[in-house]
């Protein structure tokens, strides 16, 4: 890793933690803030994730564990509400790098892509539909909602990515670090128990 990549990762990590930026925008903002050329190679997401963990350890060690627990409990609530769609939690809340500024990302695996929208309508939940890049880089529909987290006393974004029912098989392949990239409700409950022991 180059010195520039290390600087970009350190700067981007601060914005990921303090402002809740996603990795891509945080890296691009860091390149601009540091006055570097955008042509150089950016640090990988794995490198940035390590920088985020370092930042949390130094600056947020006293608050982040509670915030992470609150977000995981909120994610479990939404997973229960949408259990018929085999929800899996991913992103920073799953990997343990989330703070109160982080959003929750749930992948839903549906027979019919409109069924999740119908479920939200039936539950009188307002949402915004958009298209985002999926875990294989393909475009997928995302339903974004804001929900109040009483433990953190603020609104949290919850993003529901809609996949085909059979896509769950590919969704569980280990990531570059050999970890499960997402987990179901049972796996999230295990994570919550690990932090309370």
Topology:
Elements: H1 3-19, H2 23-33, H3 45-59, H4 64-81, E1 88-90, H5 91-95, E2 104-110, H6 115-122, E3 128-133, E4 139-149, E5 154-164, H7 168-171, H8 185-196
Parallel strand pairs: 2-5
Antiparallel strand pairs: 1-2, 3-4, 4-5
Helix pairs in contact: 1-2, 1-3, 4-8
Count of all domains: 2
| CATH-derived architecture of the largest domain | 2-Layer Sandwich
CATH superfamily of the largest domain: Beta Polymerase, domain 2
User: Within the largest sheet, what's the order of strands?
Assistant: 1-2-5-4-3
**Count of helix runs:** 8
Using only CA atoms, what is the Rg? 17 Å
Provide the structure class: alpha+beta
What is the arithmetic mean of pLDDT? Answer: 91
The share of residues in extended strands comes to 15-25%
Helical content class = 40-55%
CATH class of the largest domain: Alpha Beta
What's the SSE pattern? Answer: HHHHEHEHEEEHH
Stretches with pLDDT under 50, minimum 5 residues: none
* Fold-level CATH name of the largest domain: Beta Polymerase, domain 2
DSSP strand count? 5
Kindly, what is the distance between the CA atoms of the first and last residues, rounded to a whole number of angstroms? 36 Å
Q: What form results from the Cα inertia axes? A: globular
Largest beta-sheet characterization: 5 strands, mixed
Which key terms come to mind for this protein?
alpha+beta, single chain, 19% strand, 197 residues, 46% helix, five-stranded mixed β-sheet
Q: How would you sum up this structure, described in words?
A:
The protein contains eight helices and five strands. Helix 4 (64-81) runs antiparallel to helix 8. A hairpin with a 5-residue loop joins strand 3 (128-133) and strand 4. The chain folds into two domains: 3-59, no CATH class; 64-196, Beta Polymerase, domain 2, CATH 3.30.460.10. With 197 residues, the chain is an alpha+beta fold. Strands 1-2-5-4-3 form a five-stranded mixed beta sheet.
């Amino acid at each position: 890793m180059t010195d520039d990549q290390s600087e970009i990762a350190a700067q981007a990590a601060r914005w990921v933690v303090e402002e809740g930026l996603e990795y891509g925008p945080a890296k691009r903002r860091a390149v601009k803030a540091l006055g570097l050329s955008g042509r150089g190679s950016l640090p990988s997401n794995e490198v940035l994730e390590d920088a985020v963990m370092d930042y949390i350890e130094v600056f947020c060690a006293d608050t982040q564990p509670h915030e992470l627990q609150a977000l995981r409990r909120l994610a479990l609530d939404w997973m229960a509400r949408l259990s018929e769609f085999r929800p899996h939690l991913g992103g920073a809340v799953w990997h343990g790098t989330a703070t109160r500024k982080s959003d929750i990302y749930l992948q839903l695996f549906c027979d019919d892509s409109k069924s999740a929208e119908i479920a939200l309508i039936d539950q009188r939940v307002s949402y915004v539909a958009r298209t985002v890049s999926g875990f294989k880089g393909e475009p997928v529909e995302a339903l974004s909602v804001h929900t109040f987290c009483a433990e953190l006393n603020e609104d949290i974004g919850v993003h529901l990515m809609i996949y085909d029912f059979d896509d769950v098989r590919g969704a569980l392949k280990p990531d570059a670090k050999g970890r499960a990239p997402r987990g179901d409700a049972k796996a999230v409950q295990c994570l919550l128990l690990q932090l309370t022991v």
